[in-house]
Amino acid sequence: MTHATASAASAGSHAGAPTSSKVNVPQEGSFWLSEWAFPLFVAMLASGIFTGTHLYYVYHTGTFSDIAVTALLKAGMENGSYGAAAAFGAGFLFARIIEGPMVGILDIGGSLQTGVGIGIPAMLLAAGITAPLENFWLALPTGALCGALIGLLIIAIRRATLNSPGNTSTFGADVMMGAGNSAGRYLGPLVIIAAATASLPVGIGSTIGALLFYLWKKPLTGGAILGAMLFGVIFPIPGS
Description:
The chain is mainly α. The protein has helices spanning 2-16, 37-59, 67-79, 83-103, 108-126, 131-134, 136-160, 173-184, 188-198, 200-215, 220-234.
């Protein structure tokens, strides 16, 4: 009788004990997942990217940006007008700074490679400030400072929107995020046409890639680009 009563009491105490449903995240609370590690990482990335632009400005090689975007900076270096490069790069940078806090991911291509790599250098050159782009040891801290400020600004925006006590507004940033993705859906046919203009095999590869992505219910643009790249490796385009 005593044993049965003790067992029942023990079962009752276990049944009434609170259970925790929290999922333990690996390395949670460590430096690598801390909020203030983010500006440090962005600063290191921006430092390297800005210094790459310094190498391009001095030695005409080393930029981390796309060829088309780098061409805007090159045009400014040749004719002294940096308006196009500054506007394009700064526009991308601004959009990605607003977008980053909402999605929790900073787009390195748009924000750092285009914004820090082309936009900020173009603005400096347009203002007549050439020292950070002419001196390697000055380019490193300049890029790091830009990256740290970007990281801090993203954290500040996130605290004011998603992590705010009321969490009632994103200040329209969710609309900005969807605009680029919506516009990108219509670029697939243009990529196919551009690939076919480059060479027939590359155009066929782009078409096949777009078709496969359509069957997989994925964006056509990605399939068209990957297909063109694959067939471009197999059937290289001869240089002029």
